[in-house]
Amino acid sequence: MDAMKMQKVMRVVLVLFLSTCHAAFSITDGLLPNGNFEVGPKKEQLKGSVVTAQNAIPNWSVTGYVEYIKSGQKQGDMVLVVPEGAYAIRLGNEASIKQNVKLTKGLHYAITFSAARTCAQEEKLNVSVVPTNEKRDWGQIPIQTMYGSNGWESFSCGFVADFQDAQIVIHNPGVEEDPACGPLIDSVALKVLNPPRRTRANLLKNGNFEEGPYVFPNASWGVLIPPHIEDAHSPLIGWIVESLKAVKYIDSEHYSVPEGKRAIELVAGKESAIAQVVMTTVGRTYDLTFAVGDASNACEGSMMVEAFAGRDTVQVPYQSKGKGGFIRGKLRFKAVSTRTRVRFLSTYYTMKNDNSGSLCGPVIDDVKLLSVRYPRRAGAA
Ligand SMILES: *[C@@H]1O[C@H](CO)[C@@H](O)[C@H](O)[C@H]1NC(C)=O
Ligand SMILES: *[C@@H]1O[C@H](CO)[C@@H](O)[C@H](O)[C@H]1NC(C)=O
Ligand SMILES: *[C@@H]1O[C@H](CO)[C@@H](O)[C@H](O)[C@H]1NC(C)=O
Predict the structure, then answer these.
(1) What would you measure as the largest C-alpha separation in the chain, in angstroms?
(2) pLDDT above 70 for 139
(3) Span from the CA of 98 to the centroid of ligand 1 (angstroms)
(4) CA geometry: angle at 169 spanning 191 and 235, to 5°?
(5) CB 172 less than 6 A from any atom of ligand 3
(6) Alpha helices of the chain — where are they, by DSSP H?
(7) Are 61 and 46 in contact (CB under 8 A)?
(8) Residue-averaged pLDDT of the chain
(9) Which residue, by CA, sits nearest to atom 4 of ligand 3?
(10) How far apart are the C-alpha atoms of 267 and 249, rounded to whole Å?
(11) What are the tens digits of pLDDT across the range 192-251?
(12) Which domains, and CATH codes, for the chain?
């Protein structure tokens, strides 16, 4: 092949590659347009802090009692702080915000957003993705988030796109006496998740948790993954949060993570467990190995992770000084079914020692499942 031709081939390859990357990053990996609400309404579209026109916030459409909040604004004796930039919005009773998005059919997406409660002890949000063509209402993913502590937290949910033109809707279904009591919302992001794959090196999908929801570079509190019933709605690809409470997705930028850049913190004791169902051969021996540690987030004390595989279980104790570190756990089991449920939970409830009252817990990472070809007899391992 002469040099000229070679150059032409390379250029074509390069252009294709760049355009694919460009599409992936500019549209689907990060904040939605004006996702942090930094571009606000015009003066005449505000009455005090209340938004008076449906399209006042660029790129969004609002319904009901929505307030445009500036960081530092006071509410009673509480100062409202905004995590990203200087502005956020507040959703009053039955209020919602919507944005139209273009999706690719069949792809798995995760939405991440930050929220903070204000007056009410418990506030809920209903996040859904609906086709803009309202005749079809399938594809909804109503999730209801519950705030555990004061201040801001980020939440995520996942969905598989069944349609191209969709609307992301965040709705406050609450009915408080004071309409100005409602959750604050900031930083809404979308990310495409890569399809999970089992490899020769691991029978589990996404065993190191690297494939998960978008994590805001400036949010040092991780991302909560609420419990879900359906696999397709998990933003943590391959895994399901099958218990009552959320688990926390943490990043190596802000936490100590045993392997790679992401891990899971089991923040709600026995009430938060993650699981994955894997194909196994009856009678064959398998090794489930994993890392148990702490996130270096002032979460101290005696911790214990319980791992389950089918009918077998192991408890791995871990003594945390709250400064990071991890140990390895292992569960060897003989499959009794063609489908084995692998599951992890934290035995104890732990609270941070920083007076925040926040729940915390052991970190789990680098989970691998491998078939053991020549298992030594029991006791020899
Ligand atoms: C977002 O809003 C701005 C201002 O109205 C507009 O110029 C821009 O095209 C919008 N972006 C998208 C992706 O719709
Ligand atoms: C993130 O934090 C850095 C350092 O505090 C700041 O300079 C930057 O503006 C922040 N980014 C956003 C999007 O808020
Ligand atoms: C959640 O939102 C969906 C779609 O917007 C709606 O159909 C559903 O009734 C809402 N659920 C609650 C509890 O408000």
Answers:
(1) 78
(2) no
(3) 14
(4) 35
(5) no
(6) 3-28
(7) no
(8) 83
(9) 128
(10) 10
(11) 998 877 788 899 999 999 999 999 988 888 998 888 666 667 899 999 988 778 899 999
(12) 29-193 (2.60.120.260), 223-372 (2.60.120.260)
Q: How far apart are CA 82 and CA 182, in angstroms?
A: 15
Which residue, by CA, sits nearest to atom 3 of ligand 1?
Answer: 58
Phi, psi torsion values for 3, nearest 5 degrees: -60, -40
- Hey, what are 115's tokens? 């929220």
Ligand 3 pocket: which of 125, 140, 141 to mutate (most atoms <8 Å of CB)? 140
CA of 239 to the centre of ligand 1 (A): 35
Give the atom of ligand 3 at the shortest distance from the alpha carbon of 96: 5
**Residue whose structure tokens are 């969709």:** 166
Q: What is the pLDDT of residues 243-267, one digit of tens each?
A: 778 899 999 999 999 999 999 999 9
- 20 phi/psi in degrees, rounded to 5: -65, -45
Q: Is the pLDDT at 268 greater than 80, yes or no?
A: yes
Length of the chain: 381
CA–centroid distance, residue 347 to ligand 1 (Å): 48
Which residues lie below 8 Å from residue 65, measured CB to CB, with a gap of 6+? 50, 91, 92, 93, 94, 95, 179, 180, 182
Distance between CA 118 and CA 298 in Å, rounded? 25
In this structure, which ligand is nearest to the CA of 27?
A: 1
- Look at the alpha carbons of 333, 337, 339, 345 in this order and tell me if their dihedral is positive or negative: negative
* Ligand 1 atom 1, closest CA: 59
Look up the pTM and report it.
0.86
CB half-sphere exposure, 362, CA atoms < 13 A: 33
Q: 318 with 362: CB under 8 angstroms?
A: yes
CA distance 367 to 365: 6
Where do the DSSP E strands lie in 132-180? 143-144, 152-160, 165-171
Tell me how far CA of residue 265 lies from CA of 72, 183, 256, in angstroms.
31, 25, 11
> What pLDDT score was predicted for residue 119?
73
